[in-house]
Write a structure and sequence with these properties.
Blueprint lengths: L4 H11 L7 E4 L5 E4 L10 H9 L3 E3 L13 E8 L2 E9 L2 H45 L4 H9 L8 E7 L8 H11 L6 E4 L4 E7 L4 H19 L4 E4 L8 H18 L3 E2 L5 H5 L4 H10 L8 H12 L4 H8 L3 H15 L6 H16 L5
Parallel strand pairs: 9-10
Antiparallel strand pairs: 1-2, 1-5, 3-4, 4-5, 6-8, 6-9, 7-8
Helix pairs in contact: 5-6, 10-11, 11-12
């Protein structure tokens, strides 16, 4: 691993908060790549080369200044990563005084380098996995190239899997805390994966060994805990378990289920969708014509459309609908009569109730038709 100037500068920025002495970081070529004293940047430091060669601490006092070019009194420590010297950190000052600081500084710097490498490795693995899954879903079939790429990231392509999509508008959803929460609550082992899927969504690939009931209980529990922990809702769409060569089907199912989850604010399994299955197969021009013949006069009247939605949500109960909408029962009756007048369709007939329900469902699932 190479000690890049960008990382060296970040380390200097952090450690100078702890001590007042000047600090330098030197590359394996012997040039100062970061320093609390900007005048020393890019200067050659011969003492650091000696430190790198011997892999030992190098103490320099006043009597040693003539031995090495570009040095000052102080202590220099080799930075070790994976048993290799990747640079030198030096602290300027009286060696007896700065040595205790130096040992701590060396250890802390090596920990920062290690943490940075691990983070970059995780980022690389995540990006590689996202690219692999994206291509898999686009190509639909597991090509020889995809199988070879899967082996490089130790991804088992022989397992039946299902896709779950999560969506949230919570800014904390981009944090490591969110990833850890989902991982802890849902992912069982290395056969399951979670990846970032756009700005506010996450895609989970589960090895398909759980029953629907078990998975539902897990997701319901996850949804409740998420609400408590992040103080916001999370929307979940679940595709079915499929053969590896049919993974794109599970993805398409999870997309549809997620749309319904966002609309209904419920956990949605695609296998439990019914009317929605029919609606997605209907061509747009037919949907537009249906809306024109049914609820077109209501489309831009949010009050009346909202009333219909609440009416169906509460299973046609006048009392429960009025209570949830916080309006008087007479007000609700007035609005329902208004709906009949504007559309010319009686709401008292069962057939017409189905007509209204299909109309609102098409509208909710096809906002582009407005």
């Amino acid at each position: 691993m190479e000690l890049l100037p960008r990382l060296a500068k970040k380390i200097i920025h952090e450690v100078k908060k702890l001590i007042s002495e000047d600090i330098i970081i030197v590359s394996n070529e012997g040039y100062i790549v970061a320093s609390t004293d900007s005048r020393r940047l890019n200067k050659f430091h011969e003492g650091a080369l000696e430190c790198i060669r011997t892999k030992k601490n190098l103490i320099i006092d006043e009597s040693d200044l003539h031995k090495f070019r570009g040095v000052k009194p102080g202590v220099n420590f080799p930075l070790i990563y994976n048993q290799k010297v990747i640079g030198v950190i030096g602290i300027t000052g009286n060696p007896d005084k700065v040595m205790p600081y130096g040992k701590l500084l060396k250890k802390m710097t090596e920990l920062m380098i290690h943490e940075k490498y691990i983070t970059e490795q995780i980022d690389w693995e995540q990006k590689t996995l996202v690219s692999f899954v994206f291509d898999w879903l686009q190509l639909k079939n597991l090509t020889t190239d995809l199988v070879d790429r899967a082996k490089l990231i130790n991804f088992d392509t022989d397992k039946n899997r299902q896709i779950i999509l999560f969506a949230t508008d919570n800014q904390d959803s981009r944090s490591e805390k969110f990833i850890k929460f989902i991982t802890h609550k849902l992912l069982k082992d290395k056969k399951d994966y979670i990846i970032s899927w756009g700005s506010d969504r996450f895609l989970v690939l589960l090895e398909g060994s759980r029953t629907s009931n078990t998975l539902r209980l897990q997701l319901e529990d996850l949804k409740k805990e998420y609400k408590l922990l992040f103080d916001s809702d999370i929307f979940i769409g679940v595709g079915q378990v499929v053969h590896p060569n049919k993974l794109y089907i599970s993805y398409e199912q999870s997309c549809l289920a997620l749309e319904e989850s966002i609309r209904k604010k419920e956990l949605i399994f695609e296998e439990h969708l019914r009317i929605e299955m029919l609606l997605r197969e209907i061509p747009s021009d037919i949907k537009k014509e249906y809306l024109k013949r049914t609820i077109d006069p209501l489309i831009y009247d949010e009050q009346l459309i909202g009333t219909l939605r609440y009416f169906f949500k509460n299973n046609l109960s006048i009392k429960e609908t009025a209570e949830e909408m916080h309006i008087h029962i007479n007000t609700l009756h007035y609005r329902l009569k208004k709906i009949e007048e504007k559309t010319g369709i009686s709401i008292k007939k069962f057939e017409n109730l189905v007509t209204f329900y299909l109309g609102t469902s098409i509208l909710d699932n096809s906002t582009k038709l407005r």
